[in-house]
Design goal:
By secondary structure, the protein is of the alpha+beta class. The protein is built from ten helices and 16 strands. The strands form three sheets. The chain has a six-stranded antiparallel β-sheet, covered by helices on one side. A six-stranded antiparallel β-sheet has the order 12-11-10-7-14-15. Strand 14 and strand 15 form a beta hairpin. Helix 1 packs parallel to helix 5, helix 2 runs parallel beside helix 3 and helix 6 crosses helix 7. The longest helix is centred in the C-terminal third of the chain and has 26 residues. It is globular, with a radius of gyration of 21 Å. The protein starts with a strand and ends with a helix. The relative contact order is 0.16.
């Protein structure tokens, strides 16, 4: 029997026009293996509703076409079901897709869906909100809030907010109850505390380079206060996958973590900010989600990362040219002729 796949499209995520991606889906999907439908989201939370209905109806795969927000909305509805997640990444950061080595160009991502069987992966909960890549408190949550308020998407907006806010942000003191082999109660003054199921925020910013979505543990990264002269080095280490080598970084792994802070504030899960109380509860749920992805994960080798960047660049050029052709008078006249 054929499998059923539903493509969930967020028309406003990221900076990529989705029409060319949908044309590639129609051209490349393996029709001997799949029957498929395409559904466009119309409001926040709609992807969750679509995916939940699909899981209840026994759909084999739901594919999120969008960024980490769309991926989160889709995946949270299908945890602990037989419905698998697939991703065609076209968001601003694509953190989970990058960690899982899912191709960033639509053509190769669709071929991966055609050729790959689902495999289990972990996910996390922060104050009962599911996350699949990273979550946290402190500066990264603060920046997520600024990014959400900016109204513009893309790496440039993210970097602009980071640079504008970094020097004026005040570190906080956090008390941590850590559940691991030896239960601990520790106190840190920190710029941020990131809890990672996967290795990066997005755009190859590796906040937890050794993280794995298949080990049943979260990687906790604590960034201690630093001065302005240390910013360039920390930035380079973040994008080189070497942040764990900095003397301003403390890291450990655990299954469950409770963070206590002096006042309520913002937290984030997969880049989405939300206000929360003084106590923040974070845990990992092992093998709770089926996902279409390669077996490799984590920090890419320099050569692989560079090749992907080149492919992504030319694929974006191709998609833009297709969009321009779609809008051209010649293409419209050809469509009218076909209709007649």
């Amino acid at each position: 029997m054929k499998q059923k796949i539903i493509f969930i499209v967020n028309p406003i995520s990221g900076t990529t026009n989705k029409r060319s991606i949908l044309r590639q889906v129609d051209r490349l999907i393996d029709r001997e293996r799949f029957d498929y439908d395409i559904v466009e989201t119309k409001y926040a939370g709609h992807a969750t509703e679509i995916a939940r209905t699909a899981a209840n109806e026994g759909v084999d795969i739901v594919c999120a076409i969008g960024g980490d927000g769309t991926v989160n909305e889709t995946a949270r509805a299908i945890v602990h079901t037989r419905t698998a997640l697939a991703i065609i990444p076209c968001g601003s950061g694509n953190g989970l897709a990058r960690h899982l080595h899912i191709p960033l160009d639509a053509i190769r991502a669709i071929r991966l869906i055609n050729e790959t069987e689902p495999q289990p992966m972990d996910y996390g909960l922060i104050n009962l909100h599911p996350f699949f890549c990273t979550c946290g408190v402190g500066f990264d949550a603060f920046i997520s809030q600024k990014f959400a308020e900016a109204g513009k998407r893309g790496p440039a907006t993210y970097v602009e907010n980071v640079l504008r806010s970094a020097l004026s942000y005040s570190p906080e003191t956090y008390e941590l109850d850590v559940e691991n082999e030896n239960e601990e109660h520790v106190t840190y003054k920190a710029v941020l505390i990131a809890c990672a199921n996967a290795s990066q925020y997005g755009n190859n910013a590796y906040i937890a380079p050794q993280a794995s979505v298949r080990d049943g543990l979260m990687d906790v990264t604590i960034v201690e206060p630093f001065n302005v002269l240390e910013v360039p080095q920390l930035a380079v280490m973040l994008f080189n996958g070497a942040i764990d080598e900095s003397n301003r970084i403390r890291m450990f792994r655990c299954k469950h973590l409770v963070i206590h802070r002096s006042k309520p504030g913002v937290i984030h899960y997969d880049g989405d900010p939300i206000e929360s109380g003084e106590t923040v509860d974070v845990s990992i749920v092992p093998k709770g989600l089926l996902c279409i992805c390669p077996t490799e994960e984590g920090v890419m080798e320099v050569g692989e990362s560079a090749r992907n960047a080149v492919v992504e660049y030319f694929n974006n050029m191709y998609q833009r040219s297709e969009d321009l052709l779609e809008q051209s008078p010649i293409r419209r006249r050809m469509k009218n002729i076909k209709k007649k």
